[in-house]
Amino acid sequence: MSTVLQVRGLSKSFGGIRAVRDVNFDLAEGEFLALIGPNGAGKTTCFNMLNGYLPPDEGTVSLGGQSLIGKPPRDIWRMGVGRTFQITSTFMSMTVVENVQMALISHHRRVFDLFSRATRLYVDEAMALLDLVSMRDQAGRACSELAYGDLKRLELAIALAHEPALLLMDEPTAGMAPSERVALMALTAEIVARGGVSVVFTEHDMDVVFAHAHRILVLNRGEIIAEGSGSDIRANPLVQEVYLGGGAVFETEASDA
Amino acid sequence: MGFYFAQLLTGLANASSLFLIASGLSIIFGVTRIVNFAHGSFYMLGAYLAYTLVTLWSGSVLGFWGGVVLAALVVGLIGLVVELTILRRIYHAPELFQLVATFGVVLIVQDAALAIWGAEDLLGPRAPGLDRAVRILGEPIPEYDLALIAIGPAVLAGIWLLFHKTRWGVLVRAATQDREMVGALGINQAWLFSAAFVLGSALAGLGGALQIPREAVSLQMDLSIIGEAFVVVVIGGMGSVSGAFVAAVLISVLNSFAILIFPQISIVLPFIVMAIVLIFRPYGILGKPGSEAGAPEAPEAPLTLMSPKAMMVMCAGLMALALSPLFTAEFTSVLLVDVMVATLFAVSLHFMMGIGGMVSFGHAAYFGVGAYAAALAVKFLGFGMLPAMAFGPLCAALAALFFGWFSVRLSGVYLAMLTLAAAQILWGVTFQWQDFTGGDDGILGVWPPGWASSDRVYFYIAFVLCVGGIWVMRRIAYSPFGYVLRGVRDSQTRAEAIGVDTRFHQWMGFVIAGAFAGLAGVVFAFSKGSVFPDSLGIALSIDGLIMVLLGGIHALAGPILGASAFVLIEDWVTRLDYWRFIFGTIILVVVLVAPDGIAGGIQRLWRIIKRGAA
Ligand SMILES: Nc1ncnc2c1ncn2[C@@H]1O[C@H](COP(=O)(O)OP(=O)(O)OP(=O)(O)O)[C@@H](O)[C@H]1O
Ligand SMILES: [Mg+2]
Predict the structure, then answer these.
(1) Domain for residue A212, yes or no?
(2) Could B508 and A118 be called an inter-chain contact, meaning their C-beta atoms sit closer than 8 Å?
(3) Of B33, B248, B249, B313, which is least surrounded by CB within 10 A?
(4) CB-CB contact of B566 with B349 (8 Å)
């Protein structure tokens, strides 16, 4: 299997805080990779450097052999990287389906079209994407009325609109009921299984992580301290130490930040 | 050498008075996030009150300084009344509301001052004991200037102590940096806000009161100072008092030397400095990121297409408008042209603010560029009306292309201020470039050709251009471009994450809005036969804001209702005595009673009626 994403020596400091230090990893095609770690470990900062929201202090990121460093988020998106945010970010003054349509309009390079009716474009594709995340029945609702969990699912639909090769999901299930979490991650796993897309996700719910991730990276204070399959990670004393200083591990509740 | 030193001292004396008014404005903005246009009115009131008190107690040193201080205190009290009755209710409203509401206060204060002190300029007495000049390096320097030079830093030091040594001051600084945190700490915000407002107004009053030995007290003082005060606050960084001091000194000293080389520069210099500073420091010299944001806004409802019923009403209205020249008097046609021009202008401003989320305090710039470009093309290039009508919007678009490039790099209040600066620069150039633009005398003789010279025919030309322009703008609002523009307004992060070049998109939105404002300007120029610098002025920019607000910013139909209402009200009210007072009151009533404007008000009323009927 070929490598989709290659990350080498990625580092970032904020003033005195070294949020990310010398992070290295590869992502294979079709891989479902979990990036875990306690609050403030540097997960979101890593994501922000992967898709252009933050310039790294050091390090390289390449997608299919092309460097992503210095590119703005929009260019990285065009290269086939989708993103969902820890704190959801959607167009609040639009309906659910319009949010997805915007992504499709941009994908089809029609954002400068001045005379078509935006709401009539790509309706079927948008509905199909909403179907995928079980949001079809809410298509006409105002985005500002949605429950937080639904916003997360909407973000996933938006992120899938341009058929990305790589999907970065920052705490996709935060704010959801346990049953919803399982369903959403099962869905994501299914999308990965169909092929064509690799996923990196962060998550606090360890059940979700162990149930689906092909491989797990553990980040602590900006450094990768462990890497491996679910059972490797569970058995790793360093990881146990980090999570609540050993003892009753991996029951950690997800934070809804 | 002595001459330059004297020039420096004059600059520093000017800096002191500028600092006093700007520091108050900055404190008010920092704490309440209100862009207070009425601050100039407080300054003017300070001057008038001081005039009255000082002439009453004339002659003695104590009488002078007592009068000045008492005037400042009374202005502080007036500020308290304004805060309690008006501003308190609109802290959570968008910037636009606050600006327009405070502009309502400006109008009311103007007429109140007119009623009390009359229209004549008043010459205040000199300050006893400081009424001579001393020679420094051979040059005469007014003693009073030296006193002012000392007062500025003294007040700065006083504010610093207040902010660092008192509990209240620490809270004010905390509120300036992070309002939510202060709220979370459970501090009584209302009290904090009132106190900041009183302090800010008193400082403005003090600034005005101290001016009476230096300049005549007049009814124009308010608007002539407010532009510069805003500039100082923005250059210094919104909410930063020391920044305001640095900026006041920078501007005043630069100005006192620049006028030696280029006497006409005074009017535009502050705005040029501000534009340059903002390009390099988007939050001003000492401002912090986040200081630009006004109160957070509630998300607006998704756009819907017009219901068939509304469509029918609109078509009927358009038909009536189209047929109106057949059964009304000529002057009605002329008034209706004004309404259509205003509507197109308001729709273009709404496109930029409501849809694009870019608040502009200087949209008249593009209206004026359109009007002037057409008039100049007629005068110097011998263009006919129709080519000139195409040329105007093109030039407006080019101006928007230029100023928009700078503006979209900023956001929130800083963006608004840069648009204001752009408009003021254009206004200043137009006003002073006598040979080319005719200066204050404007350009005359911009009439339509013979075939279009009757008011009826011109009405139809205006009808086609304005209604056509509005239709095109609406079309764009519903297009992918317009939707994405709203998306950028809603969330830059998300827009970037779906591949949108947010800055470029906003820039293009800016240009489109500018072009259509230019179209309105062109139609205006040929309907009046002339153009004057007013068509680029702050007053027209504010009129536009009032129209958008009157109509309601969250409705596409808003600007149409708002502009029509505005022109008709203005046409009626300006015939009355004290029309400013009446107009200001109307504005305040709308802001306080129907903050969602006419469109929102009608919708609410309709819902109430329906509920009553059901
Ligand atoms: N823009 C910023 N400025 C300063 N410090 C920051 C910034 N963004 C993140 N940090 C700091 O960097 C560290 C890593 O933060 P990051 O958000 O990446 O953690 P995280 O692993 O995503 O945590 P969480 O699980 O809470 O989402 C934290 O200490 C955080 O305070
Ligand atoms: Mg995070």
Answers:
(1) yes
(2) no
(3) B313
(4) no
Residue A232 pLDDT level (bands cut at 50, 70, 90): confident
Span B316-332, mean pLDDT? 83
State the first-to-last Cα distance of chain B, in angstroms, to the nearest integer: 84
What residues of chain A lie within 8 A of the CB of B491, using their CB?
89-92
- C-beta of residue B558 within 8 angstroms of C-beta of residue B543: no
Which B positions 476-505 lie with beta carbon below 8 A of chain A? 476, 478-484, 486-487, 489-491, 493-502, 505
Judge: B479–A73 Cβ closer than 8 Å, yes or no: no
**8 Å CB contact of A144 and B494:** no
Interacting residues of B560 by C-beta distance below 8 A, sequence separation 6+: B343, B346, B347, B470, B551
Q: Is the same domain home to A251 and A127?
A: no
CA distances from A246 to A209, A237, B489, B537 (A): 19, 8, 46, 70
Kindly state whether residues A74 and A187 are assigned to the same domain.
yes
Asked whether residue A69 is domain-assigned, the answer is: yes
Does B296 touch chain A if contact means CB atoms closer than 8 Å?
Answer: no
The string of pLDDT tens digits covering residues B511-544 is 999 999 999 999 999 999 899 998 998 889 988 9
Residue B24 lies in a domain: yes
* Chain A residues with a Cβ under 8 Å from any Cβ in chain B: 51, 53, 72-74, 77-78, 83, 85, 89-95, 98, 101-103, 105-107, 110-119, 121, 142-144, 158-159, 161-162
The chain-wide mean pLDDT, for chain B, equals: 86
Domain boundary among A127, A147, A163: A163
Q: Is the Cα torsion angle B274, B276, B282, B285 positive or negative in sign?
A: negative
Structure confidence at residue B472 (pLDDT) = 95
Q: Are residues A228 and A174 in the same domain?
A: yes
Do B438 and B371 form a contact (C-beta atoms < 8 A)?
Answer: no
Task: Identify the domain containing residue A243 by its residue range.
Answer: 1-80+166-257
Identify the bridge partners of residue A12 per DSSP, sorted by sequence position. A20
Backbone phi and psi for residue A245, each to the nearest 5 degrees, phi listed first: 55, 45
Whether B236 is in a domain gets the answer no
CA of A38 to the centre of ligand 1 (A): 11
A118 vs B493: CB contact, 8 Å cut-off? Answer: no
**Residue A203 Ramachandran class (φ > 0 left, ψ -120 to 50 alpha, else beta):** beta
Residue B303 falls inside a structural domain? no
What is the Cα–Cα distance from B266 to B18, expressed in whole angstroms? 14
As for the ipTM of the complex, it is 0.90
Q: Is the pLDDT of residue B17 over 80?
A: yes
- Residue B431 is part of which domain span? 320-613
Residue nearest to atom 7 of ligand 1 (CA): A14
- Model confidence, pTM: 0.86
Residues B72 and B273: their CA atoms lie apart, in Å, by 30
- Ligand 2 mean position to A42 CA, how many Å? 7
What is the mean predicted confidence (pLDDT) over A41-55?
Answer: 92
pLDDT of residue A252: 42
Pocket of ligand 1 (CB under 6 A): A 14, 17, 19, 37, 39-45, 86, 257
Last residue of a domain, one of B218, B240, B263: B218
